[in-house]
Write a structure and sequence with these properties.
It contains twelve helices and five strands. The chain is mainly alpha-helical. The chain folds into two domains: 4-85, no CATH class; 129-227, no CATH class. 11% of the residues are buried.
């Protein structure tokens, strides 16, 4: 499991674009595995996982990555890869083997937010959209630009009220009583950071999420959301 950060960095999970890494992938010979079952587009991922499993630790794996590179690139690539890997914090309290073998994983963030089981399961399996998982875990989302006239305001502006309700649901901010609602309004301010466009430039804004009493709509809560039905 200690090799997972290196695996993530090598597969481009951190948006690292290095010609030297393409040199590595063009020279290394991965175990073939069951290519016909996974499809060619998954060959690199499966092959890299199998290849990394041969090594006892990160240091050994790193040296075997670097040996496929030109000598002049090795030290700079080593520093960049280790720097990117520092963004990963593999908690000692989380056993990832249970997830890879049985699909079971308990997110500390999900437990802290007292999320229902259906959300915890979806989060662990990667079944939530990036907008939802980023808002839930990072409180930060990127709003991808639409195909639109960039001289006008972003099309995401009109849907911000809807997103605020989604954020409030995800962050479990629906309170059980008006008294609790008023108390939290006075003492807590929670924001989700949104990245959108302003004309052709990137714009960052902080969206304050309002607490809402469950009395206003007893069906609108994360716990019973899968059972809610709407008719026009």
């Amino acid at each position: 499991m200690s090799l997972l950060p290196l695996f993530a960095v090598l597969t481009g999970n951190d948006y690292i674009s290095l010609p030297a890494l393409e040199t590595f992938f063009s020279r290394v010979h991965f175990p073939l595995g069951n290519v016909s079952h996974t499809g060619r587009k998954h060959f690199r991922i499966q092959g890299l996982l199998n290849w990394l499993s041969r090594f006892a630790n990160v240091e050994e794996a790193m040296e075997n990555v670097l040996k496929y590179l030109n000598l002049k690139d090795q030290e700079s690539v080593r520093q960049l890869l280790y720097s990117a890997m520092e963004e990963y914090d593999l908690s000692d309290t989380v056993n990832l083997e249970t997830f890879f073998h049985g699909g079971l994983y308990v997110s500390p963030t999900a437990v802290q937010l007292n999320l229902p089981d259906w959300v915890q399961n979806a989060l662990a399996k990667g079944a939530l959209s990036p907008l939802l998982s980023d808002a839930l875990v990072l409180k930060r989302v990127f709003l991808h630009a639409q195909v639109e006239d960039f001289r006008r305001i972003s099309a995401h502006n009109v849907t911000q009220p809807i997103r605020k309700v989604i954020y409030a649901l995800l962050l479990n901010m629906y309170q059980s009583s008006q008294a609790e609602l008023q108390e939290n309004k006075r003492n807590m301010h929670i924001f989700v950071e949104e990245f959108d466009r302003l004309e052709t430039n990137l714009r960052r804004s902080r969206v304050e999420i309002s607490f809402i009493s469950e009395d206003s709509n007893e069906d609108l809560s994360l716990q019973n959301l899968p059972g809610v039905r709407y008719w026009s």
